[in-house]
Amino acid sequence: MKNILFTSLIILVLYSCNEPIKSIDDLSSFATSQQEDFKVSVYATAHSVNNYFSTEAGRREAVSLMRANGITKIYLEVYRGGLEVSKDLLKLTKKYFEKNGFDVTGAIATVPGKNYGLRQEGTLGWFNWQNKKTQNDMKQVMINTASIFDTFIIDDFLCTGDISDESREAKGKKTWPDYRRELMINIASKVFIDPARSVNPDIHMIIKYPQWYDRFHLFGYDVESGPNLFDEVWVGTETRGQYTQRYGFVQPYEGFVNYRWIASLSGNKIGGAWFDHGDCDDLDFIEQAYQSVLAGASELVLFNYGNFINGHKGHHNLRMEFENLSLLAKTIKNSPVIGLSAYKPPQSDAGGDLYIMDYIGMLGIPLIPVSSYPENAQSLFLPTQAASDPTIVSKVEASIKRGARIIMTSGFLAKVKDDGILSRKAGISKPIVKPLSAESIIIDGSIKILERTLDLETEIEIQDATKILTAMVNGNAVPFLTRSKNEQIFVLNSHTFSDEDFEAVGEVLLSPRLLGLLDLPESWVGTVRGVFNVNLNIQLDAPSRITMQPLKNGDIIIHNYNKEKIDLVLRSGDFESVLYSTFERQNIISDNKALSIQMKPRSRIWLQKNK
Questions:
Q1: Interval 112-133: pLDDT, tens
Q2: What's the rounded Cα separation, in Å, for the pair 578 and 586?
Q3: What angle (nearest 5°) sits at the alpha carbon of residue 43, between those of residues 81 and 282?
Q4: Cα separation of 1 and 149, whole Å?
Q5: Angle 588-591-597 (CA atoms, 0-180°, nearest 5)?
Q6: pTM of the entire predicted model
């Protein structure tokens, strides 16, 4: 009996030893398996590297935190705000993380501090890049550290607003924007790229642009020349809280707009998206991730590692949504978001249309920003920025001849140098910019008082156009939306922000206040949306503060950014009787090509044809 038991025990032990060990099914393993289509990275500032990675315990904690959150790559910053990390610590940390299976990239934040460079004379804490000490100090940092890394990224402070005598003298008769762009392109090569390659010829250099795209050209960012200098381009999609002033009342759609617009300039050099935790609740944080992926980003860089030490509610959402984000990223690779082309040339002034694309997108209108004129577009949107194109008039006339539907802002018509040609085609007199605030609007012949005033760009004088929507200013009727006699050209008399609006509150980069445009009644929102979306074969009945983003393959993604639940109706001739809700993994029944949905506050839905 004892021999039988002993023999059985040996057999059991041998079987157990030879049984294949199943792979661990955790987020770290899943994230590793998804890297070809989607990855999450984290950025560690110079202070985080010094404070958290100088001990083995700190590095071990980092490995645990990154694995728990599906992070497979880390950016190690070598300098920020006067702190330059020692070469020995950078080498040790890089080797440790690589040994534990993480990709490692070098980084720098060109922020003044202590004995490094000279702070600019101006509103923000940037460098005076005209100054030789600034140039030499940053050049030396690159020489000291570039040999450590195969890839290196420059954070979004490679810009300047300096107005010192030194910069004034160097500027000469140039405009500030022209001088700064020329200076910063030279700095990018002479101070960063060339020194890095002098010690590491094969280093891969990345430029990261911030999210304030309509102000780039004012402070030295040349998004036309920059992508040609660098090997890759990263994009800031840090929209944060839409209802709070701390980082500007930035709309969630801005992340999508910024990424797609820069992608149109960067071509195959476009890389990842970058956002942070600042002024974010848990929902803001994950919403940034979704708009980044919808724009085409397959890598999300989270700023910064210190937030993982302290914890943030958004991390739970990211972990729970990781699979959905990965699936969406894989889908977007072959079926990007499609919609209505919105033309913004590089280095273009916005007039009173600053960030207008962000707000139009929040009306459920899938604007796709482009940096080159969309000659073959069936429908296109021309804000004031488009008037910077010196050949815009002939291009628009060619589009009209082809039968394209064109929506122009009154600011565009006021700025364009055309002797009133396009205004006449639109059926109005050439406008003169004179910002107005409407306290009420007309709906079905009755006056409705608005909760928040609606900003208008000007008074519009009708010739033979038809008024579609009318606002009231001091008892006078002012057109908000008009249609030309041939029903091909529409004029939107909106005003978001101008330089004067920014200066009035001391803002430099981001939206300075809330806008009444997003508080309009649903009937007005639906009318505006219908004008823009007519060629999409999709009709959406819903309030504002939502985004609708159709994919090339026929899928539709809708976000509700409202603080309350909403009811919407979606109609399309392409709908089947049964649709599949991808995020919920369940079927939805549509009725006669119409789908009625109730969406929870701050939620999203991905509709596909029935699986």
A1: 998 999 999 999 999 999 999 9
A2: 10
A3: 110
A4: 66
A5: 50
A6: 0.95
Q: Which of 459, 469, 470, 466 is nearest to 488 (CA)?
A: 466
How many Å apart are CA 319 and CA 388, to the nearest integer?
A: 44
Residue with tokens 């488009």: 386
What would the mean pLDDT of 188-204 be, rounded to a whole number? 98
Separation CA 101–CA 92 (nearest Å): 15
Where is 384: in which H helix or E strand? none
Q: How far is CA 372 from CA 86, 278, 380, 387, in A?
A: 45, 33, 12, 13
d(Cα 337, Cα 308) in Å, to the nearest integer? 31
| 77, β-bridge pairs | 107
State the pLDDT at residue 3. 53
Tokens of 222: 């040349």
Residue with tokens 């944060």: 240
DSSP string, 131-170: SHHHHHHHHHHHHHHGGG-SEEEE-TT------SHHHHHH
- How crowded is residue 438: how many other Cβ atoms within 10 Å of its Cβ? 21
- Domains of the chain in sequence order: 31-334 (3.20.20.80), 340-521 (3.40.50.880), 536-609 (2.60.40.1180)
Residue 374 confidence (pLDDT): 98
Reported as a single tens digit per residue, the pLDDT across 258-278 is 999 999 999 999 999 999 999
